[in-house]
Description:
- The chain has helices spanning 4-24, 32-55.
- By secondary structure, the protein is mostly helical.
Amino acid sequence: MKTNDLLKAEMVNIFSSEIDNWLANGYQSNEGFEYEASFVETLREVGAKAFQASLGKVPKSKNQKKTPNLNGRH
């Protein structure tokens, strides 16, 4: 499990990176709808990445054993 400070730093890095990408990709638009849509999409991606970072590594299979078979039985 990540410490609160480590998780906070990772989330700040995610937010900073996504906003930098949004600013660099010409977020400025003459139409309010395009501006708002790009802003909302950027925040959605930030939220998804921050949520994933808070969860940590997710196993590939929900049925995967969490402990090794130590007694040799199958």
